Structure prediction request, 346 residues.
Amino acid sequence: MVSSVSTAGTEVKPAHGKKKVVGDVLLRVRGLKKYFPINSGLLIQRQVAAIKAVDGLDFDVFKGETLGLVGESGCGKSTTGRTILQLYRPTEGSVEFEGTDLAKIKGEPLRKMRKKMQMIFQDPYASLNPRMTVGRIIAEPLEVHNVGTNRERTERVQYLLERVGLNPYFINRYPHEFSGGQRQRIGIARALALNPTLIVADEPISALDVSIQAQVVNLLQDLQQELGLTYLFIAHDLSMVRHLCDRVAVMYLGKIVELAPSEELYTNPLHPYTQALLSAVPIPDPMEERKRTRIILKGDVPSPANPPIGCNFNTRCPVAINTCFKDEPVLTEVLPNHWVACHRVS
Prediction:
C-alpha cells in the first residue's frame, strides 16, 4: 500500500488497495495515430507535412483500474484522451470500447456510446459555460440524451452536487460565483450525470491550488470505489500518479516508451526517459535526496512534425547507441506486465 500523500495540510487518502492487472479489458487501443495536417498555399491549400501528436499507441485499460498517462508537455497525452473519446477522430488505428470500435462508427451509434464515456477537463474556468447556471450545465448531458423528466433531472442534479461536496441549493448559481476547486467539482458532477463506465481525467488537478488538489483526488477515489469507475488519468504530478494509479504509461513525443504497474515502474524504471523523469521527483527525506543522482536531459524535445529517425528519444538519450539512430524500438514485455520500448533493455 502506498503511504498517504500530504498536500498543504490536506492528506490524500491511501488508495483503496492496489488492484492486480487482471480482469476484463474495457478499452483496447491498437495502432492509434492522430496527425494534424500542416497546409501551405494561399489560394489552393495543400498538405506539406503533419504534426504527429499521437503516433502508434498500443495499450489496454482494464475495468475498475486507474491507468496513469504521464510525460512532458506536448508529448500527446491530452490528444490521446480526446482521440479515445472521438473528440478528435483518429488518423489511423482502432479504439475498442466494450468490444465496439469507436473509430468505425459515427452519428447516432457513436452518440449512444458517449453516455458511457465522459471527460473531466483540465481548466475548470474554461470548461464551464459562463452563461449557463450550474443546474443547466450538469443537466445538459441528460437533456442531450433525453434522460428523465424535468423534475427527475433537477433531482439528479441536486444529488450530484451533494455527492461532489457542494450545496444542492447552488443549482441556480453561475460558474463565476465559485472557486476553481468548486468549479472542478461541478465538472466532475457533469461527467457523472449519465453514469459512465470510463472517465478520461485530463490533468484535473493541475490548474487548482495545492491545498485543493488533495480534496479533488480523494473525491475521485471515493467515486471510483462507490460507482466502479475506470479512469484514464492524465497528469504531470508523478508523486500523485504513483499514489492514485494502478498502472502507469510514460509517453514521449507521441509514443509510449514504458508501461508497467505503478510500484514496479517507480521502483524499477527501465527506459532512460522514465529514469530521468523520476529523478526529478522530490524525495521528502533529506538524507535520501542527497544520495540521489539527478539525470539532466540535454537539448529540447524534437518537433512532432519532424521526429528523429529511429528512436524518438535518441537526440536526448544519455545512453544511445548506433541502433537507436537507425531502428525504431518496439514496445516489448521485458518483465511480467512491464513493457519497454528501448534497444538497451532486453
Summary: The two ends are 29 Å apart (CA to CA).
